[in-house]
Design goal:
Number of strands: 9
Radius of gyration: 26 Å
Helix content: 25-40%
Strand content: 25-35%
Distance between the termini: 69 Å
Length: 269
């Protein structure tokens, strides 16, 4: 048995542009602009069938009694697909000013002030291991994969500006709003895990994949998985962006801005 682990493949960063609001007070701006990361590791283990390894099988194959495809179907381990989602955890930061939070949000309008902000790093790690059989005469290789995808949305930080920390009512209102954004991340993480699993099952199921040689198998399996995950994660970012915008509705901004007698903006030096 020969085993090899190729270099890691890094997907181009997937960027979610920052979002804001035209609300006059902008009581609870947020951002999700940290790009996800995709790391793909590939290990290809190829079993070369030869007379010394499996004489009976080789003799039968030479006699035309057992085809290469039949050996692959019978001997390769079944495909496995594992999707793991890390629990959502967040830290709370009350030390930054609303000016700092507004800058962090990417908002440039002077009429908008961020008293609350939620940031998260969406990360993905994928590993692909393939057990295969190589026909020593032709060099053809057949494989079935074992795939593991780890999804996470950490680190996640919920910011409440220091200007409202001494006002329990206003601080609680802003935190309540930001936790709605946390809930979107939590819900979407569970959903995307199910979606990734279903998509990979449709693609790989328990199929046997055939390649002209071992190197081609390694390249194509690696490329195909990275492309499919990239598409799925692009869609995930779009859905998160859409749902977070729904949280930041004009009605919600108006509710937060009017809470506790209204949130006032004091000039800062």
């Amino acid at each position: 048995m020969q085993e090899g682990v190729p270099p890691r493949l890094r997907q181009k960063p997937l960027r979610c542009p920052p979002r804001g609001s035209n609300s006059r007070l902008g009581a609870a701006l947020r951002r999700e602009g940290v790009p996800p990361r995709l790391r793909l590791l590939l290990a290809l283990a190829v079993i070369a069938l030869c007379a010394g390894c499996d004489t009976a099988t080789s003799v039968a194959a030479r006699a035309g009694l057992v085809s290469f495809e039949e050996r692959c179907e019978q001997k390769l381990p079944k495909t496995t697909i594992d999707i793991v989602a890390a629990p959502i955890e967040y830290a709370t930061d009350r030390d930054r000013s609303y000016t700092e939070l507004t800058q962090m949000s990417g908002e440039t309008s002077s009429a908008v002030h961020a008293f609350g902000l939620t940031t998260a790093e969406i990360s993905h790690h994928a590993s692909l291991e393939t057990a295969g059989i190589e026909d020593t005469r032709s060099g053809r290789t057949c494989v079935r994969p074992a795939i593991r995808v780890e999804l996470a949305m950490t680190p996640m930080t919920v910011y409440v500006s220091r200007e409202v920390t001494d006002d329990p009512c206003r601080a609680a209102t802003i935190l309540e709003h930001e936790l709605k954004h946390v809930a979107v991340y939590r819900e979407r993480l569970a959903e995307v895990g199910d979606e990734v699993r279903a998509a990979l099952v449709r693609t790989y199921d328990n199929r046997v994949f055939y390649f002209s040689n071992r190197a081609e198998g390694q390249r194509q399996m690696e490329w195909a998985l990275s492309q499919q995950l990239g598409t799925l994660l692009d869609d995930n970012a779009r859905q998160i962006k859409q749902r977070q915008r729904q949280v930041d509705s004009p009605e919600e901004y108006a509710r937060v801005a009017a809470a506790c007698g209204g949130i006032r903006v004091d000039p800062q030096t």
